[in-house]
Amino acid sequence: MNDTSSKTPTYVPGLDHILGGGLPTRRISLVTGGAGCGKSVLAAQFLVGGAGAGEPGVLVTFEQGLDELRRDFRGFDFGFGERLGAGEIQVLHVDPDMLPDTTTGSFTLDGLLLQLEGAIEEIGAKRVALDTLESVISELGDSANLRRELRRLFRWLEERGLTGLVTAEAGHGEAFTRRGLEEYVADCVILLDFRIRNELATRRARVLKYRGGSHSGDEHPFLIGPSGIELFPLTASRLEYEASRERIGTGIPSLDEMLDGTGVHRGSSTLVSGSPGAGKSSLGAAFVDGACRRGERALYFSFEESPEQILRNMEAVGYDLRPWVDGDLLVFESRRPSQRGLEGHLFGIQRAVEEHDPQVVVLDPFTSIAGPQETGPSRSMLVRLVDLLKGRSITTMFTALEAANLSGHSASQSHVSSLMDTWVVLQAKRTEGARHRYGWILKSRGIEHSRYVRELTVTDEGIEFVATDGGRGEAAD
Amino acid sequence: MDETPKALARDWHFLLYVAGMTPTAEAAHRRLEALVADHVGPDATVEVVDLNQEPARARLDGIVAIPTVIRTRPTPPRTVIGDLTDTAGALRGLGIPDV
Questions:
Q1: Which residues pair with A23 in a beta bridge?
Q2: What is the CATH number of the domain that holds B74?
Q3: How far is A169 from chain B (nearest CA, A)?
């Protein structure tokens, strides 16, 4: 029975990582969260994952009947219906409406235990999920009798060798759950959080407690996509990337010149910030054009303009990207910023990256999906995004819309810029009725870069950074 | 004991669900029989379902708590749980006039 140290994987992507391997084996864990936070989806995934690994499971549901469950999970591709059909998952529906509201004396939950026993034996269940017990408590009345019986139910399941989870409504303040269920399931508590920030839906998962095990106590963003819950652990292998010594051109020879003559490191991230019309998208176009000229694959995410608009605009500044699109080297992904939350965007970006397997990626403008937050969701998602791209040695350019100011040191970019290897600042200025655009390199890790401001000009060959003062220009700072 | 009211002289049927004839189950059975005899009348029937003997019925009949009493007739059914030590509660829950 000394099983306390072993762990049972949930097979929910990313969750096992923050659980240090999985849920405690032969223990009932608690998943708590508000309405719509994804508790039921998590429970279903846990059972489906188990079924796929030869561990059938019983789902005890107090809210939805079988038909409702089938309908709810039809939208997901993780295969709940198939596992149900194959008899690898059994659903035990306890309708709270059928529970009596009159208690005439002491009682046990032996009826439920017998139902469970039947279901467990029928399929040889190794996993169990109870979703959610609150309804039982509210129907039968919260009493010392019921609590004693719930405790007995959990111990009974554990003694039968089942690993499981019970879902519960999140409580306020100190209490993990509204009904204090954490009192009975003391080994592992996971909190799912769903909130709206900056009009974007954000979801977070956190391990509140894990007795005798290591876990990451941080908040981890997750999303609920077609495959169910997917976590993005922030503790991914950020520092394990092999710093590439290889350098690649930015697609603009004069900009490469400013970067020690050779461009940026492969797998690095470049931030291009600037006011509207300062030339950010042009740099993005030059970047993918340069990659395609080398025969590399490029992926251009556009959050404001359609691919057709970009192709037209870029042709006007000397970049004909159509041949690359026709030759499948360059792929445009156009997405409306408002279409989905940041998590949703990250999910889409990840999918597209996996599908097209590019060497170079442009996100233009990144700020329209990231929002203005200095900390919190934006930053954590950006960390995750940078992780994802660096992990694949993809060289990335993030463009960022920057309100015009003299220095370019806007506080709004500080949380972004710290994650970037190179930062190019662009600026549009009106001098004596004429509009001029300037650019300089604010930083570039590990590269002896130019510290001078140059002027951007458009030639037949595209963008050029022209030295404004006898080949040297004026100092940026 | 007063006469059984006419309205209750009809066909009454109760199911008592237990899990093994434990002392608690025996006591609940005795209380139910007494309660029915006192408040419903001699024609009412009480049937004991021992789920240890018929485990499949737990799921079929949707039994969660033990003991459970279901008044199956007259319809609609009424259900209470517990060992029936609270007589007034049992009468109320089972829809039996306390006469």
A1: A8
A2: 3.40.30.10
A3: 21
